[in-house]
Amino acid sequence: MLRSADEYRDGLADQRRVHYRGQLADVLAHPELRVAVDHAALDFAVAHDPAHHDLAVTHDATVPGGEYSTYYALPGSVDDLIRRSSLIELVTGLGGTMVTLVKEIGTDALFALLRTLDGEGYERAEAYYRHCRDNDLAVAVAQTDVKGDRSLPPHAQPDPDHYVRIVSEGPDGIVVRGAKTHTSVTANSDELIVLPTRAMGPDDADWAVAFAVPMDTPGLHLYVSSYHAGELDPFDHPLSSKHKMLESLTVFDDVLVPWDRVFLHRRPELAGPLALAFVEYHRFTAVSYKLPLLDLLVGATSRIVEMNGVAKAAHIRDKLSRLVIYAETIRGLTHLAALRGHEAERGLWVPDPMTTNLAKYTFATQYHEHLRYVQDCAGGLLVTGPGGEDWADPDTRAVLEKYYSAASGAEERIRMLHLISDLTARDFGGYHAVLAVHAEGSIEAEKMQILREHDPSAARALADLLATPS
């Protein structure tokens, strides 16, 4: 079935243990957490919107109900990769440049499991994929272990719980302990997939584990970051008052995982390939959801320079051209990653890893530079301008309308400035800026993957040819 946004919300009414700002919290009742729930509901609402139905819904007579969310469509061609990217871009744009992620990241992990596993692990993963697809579930992913001393492998850590590990097993399943960090959308998803984060050796067998559990599983605790907490005025925060993503420290306190939910069990030789397969899909998701953010940087800057009356200044035109070049370069590389995609294990197609990483590297290494162009064009009112309470007071508003009018009226100018400030100068903008550097892998990881994927044979052959006397 294709769940509605309200059915998604109703599914979160369970016994999950969400810790927020020092207290246990109900994600549906807490006003700050509810913002994230309503934001993520876009992933469900889009399937019921006639304007987007053809993109958001995949029809298949072989599945129950004959249709399912396009997020769950197994990529089998270049066109499938482009379609997936277009859906991610669409919903992120509807979400005010904040990715919803409750279907995107989970399906990235499912594709990786189906590509990488064999035997009983594959059979369990395939059954779990059908369970998630047919029930239209929101699925989060916990991959990044807290890691402890990063110079040491999992088995050599002073505290063995710094990587999630198997502590016992029996007829009913395995018991796991440890913690993952940077886990997005756990507090407002239905299910959680756990993946290894790195290559492992024979001594790391207890840590070579992948599994899935419902979010209200006993022993699972979600410690949600309080970053960007507080009630926000929509006038001052036009984006972040409506769009939010929750990040958690995810703790497994002797969690029992039934055998039918265990996909990788003490097979360290598959830990690295599984982690890498997930990254190959997830970085493509990443560059796809960056596109609306880049479009908004261009569009808002173009608007504010007109409102300020400086659109014809040479240095402004130079900065705008640089913003356009940056945005269109990322868009072109993202599209090219799909066009260069290839068939991988079990007929699943994967975006070209080198091009995907080129897109992500270019985005990450140039993001802060281009924020500077946006802020330079907008001006200091990004942080010194009036707020919603000022605008709501008639006497103060009269003063603001007189002195903050420019090439446009004061209200539209102030609202555009608040949009840019929310996007670049406040907590929401800071979140985007950190994600640019660290989300979906570090800049160094992207460089390593680019070099790993590059085939130098043709370039070397040309060099050898031209260096050889004729």
Please tell me the overall pLDDT: 97
Structural class: alpha+beta
Please state the second-level CATH architecture of the domain at 271-459: Up-down Bundle
The helix content, as a percent range, equals 40-55%
**Tertiary shape:** globular
Largest sheet: 6 strands, mixed
Radius of gyration: 24 Å
CATH superfamily of the domain at 271-459: Butyryl-CoA Dehydrogenase, subunit A, domain 3
The CATH topology name of the domain at 271-459 reads: Butyryl-CoA Dehydrogenase, subunit A, domain 3
Which sequence of strands runs across the widest sheet? 2-1-10-11-7-6
Strand tally:
14
Number of discrete helical segments: 17
Return residue spans where pLDDT drops below 50 for at least 5 consecutive residues.
none
Level-1 CATH class name of the domain at 271-459: Mainly Alpha
The portion of residues forming beta strands comes to 5-15%
Cα(first) to Cα(last) distance is: 68 Å
Brief rundown of the structure:
The chain has 470 residues and is of the alpha+beta class.
Secondary structure layout plus pairing:
Blueprint lengths: L4 H6 L6 E4 L2 E3 L5 H10 L1 H4 L7 H4 E3 L7 E3 L8 H17 L9 H13 L2 H16 L4 E4 L22 E6 L2 E12 L6 E4 L14 E6 L5 E5 L22 E12 L3 E4 L2 H41 L5 H26 L2 E2 L5 E2 L2 H26 L2 H4 L3 H5 L1 H10 L6 H15 L2 H12 L4 H11 L3 H11 L3
Parallel strand pairs: 1-10, 5-8
Antiparallel strand pairs: 1-2, 3-4, 6-7, 7-11, 8-9, 9-12, 10-11, 13-14
Helix pairs in contact: 5-8, 5-9, 6-7, 6-8, 8-9, 8-10, 8-14, 9-10, 10-14, 10-15, 10-16, 14-15
